[in-house]
Amino acid sequence: MLRELSARHRGWALAAPFRISRGVKYSAEVVEIEIGEGDCRGRAESVPYARYGETIESVLDQIESARQAIADGASRAQLAELLPAGAARNALDCALWDLEAQRAGTSVWSTLRLAPPQVLTTALTVSLDTPERMGEAAARIASARLVKVKVDASAPAAQIEAVRRAAPDARLIVDPNESWNIALLRDMQPSLAALRVALVEQPLPAADDDALEGFASAVPICADESCHVAADLPRLQGRYQAVNIKLDKTGGLTEALALRTAARAGGFRIMVGCMICSSLGIAPAFLVARGAEFVDLDGPLWLQADHADGVRSRNGALHPPAPGFWGEGRDANTGNAVASAR
Q1: Does the CA dihedral 11-17-19-22 come out positive or negative?
Q2: Is 73 left (phi over 0), alpha (psi -120 to 50) or beta?
Q3: In terms of Cα–Cα distance, which of 227, 333, 309 is closest to 43?
Q4: Which residues belong to the active site?
Q5: Which of 75, 79, 125, 165 is most buried, judged by most C-beta within 10 A?
Q6: Which residues pair with 298 in a beta bridge?
Q7: What backbone phi and psi angles, to 5 degrees, belong to 39?
């Protein structure tokens, strides 16, 4: 039976602007796809990211280029040969996982021999602003166990200090989004230690990774823009101590799981992150985040409105989407999820 593929651009308004060193977002612009086969429909979402040369149009074009192969029954393994790692392959890969679970009347996690998605402690993000406003934002989430601080090169110590004062007990992840250089990173070492920062995420541009060779940091350094797939890991050894796994970078759940396995084997600490997206974009990430030391899946929490049956959060405790939202087969008569109970 031939499959049917549909893809569309969808925008989700944010409740507040999301600022990082590269710019500001006012909405989450995503690509939402559906792959149908008989009565089953596999859904997924991805976020085209300009940092990697992606646009809504380019991702939709990539998906269109794979339409015939998907219609003819291409597997996830074959998909990896058709498209590079990125947003387009992510959407197709995750939709195929969802479709396969529905056709089999089981769940993705059962197929992977994992327990069902569980409540995660996610980072809550303080976006880039003046130190005063960042402190005010941090005060509103001061009870969170993990806080991510977006900084730039203008006044990073003051930005982090303002958040630390407002959230004295939280673990802190500091994310410059490639805006620092090696001299600034070196100068920031005393402040990072004094402010009890747990992790620094991608301080330097990915092209400058060689500057980290042998650098003795007071705080573990995590590769984000420098790490997309498992094949990237060898060149990160001796430069980074952790890697941030994101579905949109790996090209889907299939490679994300492979990256997690290879990273652990290579001695890297694991962080699982996301773009600003809806619950559909992070539902598969719950399976990657199991056991991760750092989880940053608060993308849907920035939206004015999300899927009604999507994630729920309280003080950083992130509850997975409702049963049947993604990755579970449904009973043909009742419409209820038929996979293992949560």
Answers
A1: positive
A2: left
A3: 309
A4: 150, 246
A5: 125
A6: none
A7: -90, 0
Pick the CATH number of 120-319 from 3.30.2270.10, 3.20.20.120, 3.40.630.30, 1.20.210.10: 3.20.20.120
Indicate if the pLDDT at residue 341 is higher than 50: no
88 CA to centre of own chain? 15
Question: Tens digits of per-residue pLDDT, 113-165?
Answer: 999 999 999 999 999 999 999 999 999 999 999 999 999 999 999 999 999 99
Map residue 339 onto helix, strand or coil: coil
Task: Report d(CA 270, CA 242) in Å as an integer.
Answer: 6
| Whole-number Å distance between alpha carbons of 164 and 147 | 9
Alpha-carbon distance 67 to 203, whole Å? 38
Q: How far from 338 is each of 8, 184, 331, 341, CA to CA, in Å?
A: 28, 53, 6, 8
Q: Got the DSSP string for 211-232?
A: GGTT---SS-EEESTT--SGGG
Quote the CA–CA distance of 266 and 223 in Å, as a whole number: 14
Q: Give dist(CA 263, CA 242) in Å, integer.
A: 8
321: tokens are 């989407």
Specify whether domain 4-106 bears CATH 3.30.540.10. no
Torsion on CA atoms 42, 45, 48, 51, rounded to nearest 10: -120
Using DSSP's 3-state secondary structure scheme, residue 30 falls into strand
Q: Are 91 and 33 in contact (CB under 8 A)?
A: yes
Domain ranges of the chain: 4-106, 120-319
